[in-house]
Amino acid sequence: MVTMNRIVVRRIVLLFLSLIAVPVCLSAQKRSDPLKPKWLTQKLPEAKTPLYSLVRTIGEGRNLSEARQSCMKDLTDFLEHNRGITVSSTLSGRETVRDDQDSHIQTQYSFEYKEDGRTFSIDSRKIDEYWTYKDGNYRCNVLYAVANKEGGDTNCDDISVSTRYGARGFVRSLVIPGWGQMYKGSYLKGGLILGGEAAFVAGIIAAENLRASYRKKMKEQPQHIKTYNTKADNCENIRNICIGGAAALYVYNLIDAIAANGAKRVIIKKKNSNLSINPISSPFCNGVNMAYQFNSK
């Protein structure tokens, strides 16, 4: 039973080491982010206004620049196929978007096309990208916001990218260990936490049942009381070790759920305009001042 105690302790140590090693191994791989963004693995979020749509593109190349150019070609093909136009040129410019969660750079593009002898343009904005490198080849995925053909605008909503989830991951992990990690995109880590807690609970139940069985045999077979007492004590030690491991893993699960970054997600907020009404009084007139403030693009 002493050997069994050592095995249990060893497995607990290996579990915690594996949890620590998960983000290290992921970050060591050649990819832009440790986790695939949610806009790539899940359904795209809906725009708050009908003036634009979100488009996923994919491209490959021998270097990252070629892969990004391939994504731009994929977007051009999408516009020509879905909107029945022929893009004649593409103009680009850069703008920095900052918010209270993350800072990132988004790139504006303008696609020009001709129709009935007139030149029109479609605005597009690069929201985010994710790339991987394997066997000498880059694979890139880019998310764009593309304006509608007529009167479209990609700046009518606040579109940002964040790796933070607030208390939502914490609440989920509070209910089910590992759920918060899975919600944030860390499926491997969440699975290890959930499996570890299940193993600890199973160990607690099994050790307690064995301990109770040995205690019962001590009364039924007093001639072997010393042997059964030793076995019961060992089972109690294993049970206590499992209880401690389950508690430590649960605390780690909560801390990680609220502190660790998750997979990148797209946040779309509708821009609001403000109407203010204030009374005014002066030697020349009395009345009400009305001001309507539009958010700048």
Automatic annotation (TrEMBL):
Residues 168-259 form the DUF5683 domain. It comes from the Bacteria. This is DUF5683 domain-containing protein. It comes from Candidatus Gallibacteroides avistercoris.
